[in-house]
Amino acid sequence: MKVGNGLPMLLTKHLNKEFLKFLISGGINTLATYLMYLLLLHFYNYSISYSISYVAGIFLSYYLNSVFVFKEKISFRKFLKFPLVYIVQYLVNMLMMYILVEFAQMLAQIVPLVAMVVTVPITFLLSKMIIKSK
Asked: What is the DSSP secondary structure assignment for residue 104, as one 8-state letter?
C-alpha cells in the first residue's frame, strides 16, 4: 500500500510522531526507574528495591504517556486500567522467552531483546487504547 497524500499519510505521520514520543518516554522511564532502583539498593534488598521502582515506573509511565505522548488529561479511572498494559507485556514476554529458549534454542541472554521488539508496539497500542479511551 503506497502512502501518498490524504488520510493514510496523515495517519502514518501522526502515528510515527506518537510512537517516537512513546520511545522517548519509555527511555526516560527506564532511566528514572533504574536510577531509583540503584538508590533504593542502599536501603533495601534487591527484590524490595525492584518492586518499589517497578510500581513507581507504572506511575511515571502513565503520566508521561498521558501528558507527553498522547496529550490527554490525567484520569484516575484510566490510571486504574493502565497496569493491565504491564501485565500483558509481562505475559507476552514470558511466553516468547519460553518458546524462543526452549524450542528455538536461542540464547537466554538475547531473547529479552527479541521479545522487546514485539512487545514495544503492543505496549504502545494498549497504552494508547487506555489513555485515549473516553
From this structure: S
Q: What single DSSP character describes residue 103? A: I
- What domain range includes position 92? 7-132
49, 83 Cβ separation under 8 angstroms: no
Nearest to 18 by CA among 62, 70, 60, 63: 70
CA–CA gap between residue 130 and residue 128 (Å, rounded): 6
Whether 1 is covered by a domain: the verdict is: no
30-72 confidence digits (pLDDT tens): 999 999 999 999 999 999 999 999 999 999 999 999 999 999 9
Residue 2 belongs to a domain: no
As a dihedral over the C-alpha atoms of residue 41, residue 53, residue 22, residue 123, rounded to 10 degrees, the angle is: 120
Phi-psi region of 8 (alpha: psi -120 to 50; beta: other; left: phi over 0): alpha
Total structural domains within the chain:
1
Hey, how many other C-beta atoms are within 10 angstroms of the C-beta on 79? 16
Is a pLDDT exceeding 70 seen at residue 95?
yes
127 vs 43: CA distance, rounded Å: 32
